[in-house]
Amino acid sequence: MINRRQAIGAAATLAVATAATQLVTPGTALAAQTGWASCPKCQSLWWPNTPYAIPCRAGGHHTKDGSFSYQVKVQSDGGAGQNDWRSCAACQCLWWSGGTAGRCAGDPNGHRISSYAIGKSWYYLVEFEPQFPSERHQRGWRSCANCSVLFFTPVGGPNGRCASGGRHEPVGSWKYLLRY
Ligand SMILES: [Zn+2]
Ligand SMILES: [Zn+2]
Ligand SMILES: [Zn+2]
Fold this sequence. Notes:
Elements: H1 4-11, E1 33-38, E2 45-46, E3 70-74, E4 82-87, E5 94-96, E6 124-128, E7 137-143, E8 150-152, E9 176-179
Antiparallel strand pairs: 1-2, 1-3, 3-6, 4-5, 4-6, 6-9, 7-8, 7-9
Bound molecules: zinc ion (ZN) (3 copies).
InterPro entries: TAT_signal (IPR006311)
Keywords: Signal
Protein name: Tat (Twin-arginine translocation) pathway signal sequence
């Protein structure tokens, strides 16, 4: 049995998607955080580097089977793209925080930027598809109109599973690109 105090202490050493745990020297540009994964079941981008099993709307828990290790840029480093993306402490997905809290597979109140065990998320920046993608660029990423999560939908392919029920909704989304 682990008590709350121990849980908080342990959290400080986790490689979660928070500013407090990044191994960077002061003043160094972060540029990007590597290690994000797409879940093959719900097709959402999520941060798998925690010791917790993270609930997946498609059933069970997210996995990273067969996924690339993706990079997501940190907003404070600037650059072209869309700001205000954050990681959710409950479902660990990358979601756009500029609208509503979205529907979350891990919290009935919607996505959240921190929890008792997971520190506050950074702000991230997601790039739009360039006119001429190059190697290690992957197109086909969209934000879901219902849950606000970034998810992968190859041309003509399925749209994963959404925390709001059914599949993610790509209508109205910008076209995003991830690097790996
Ligand atoms: Zn999943
Ligand atoms: Zn969530
Ligand atoms: Zn969705």
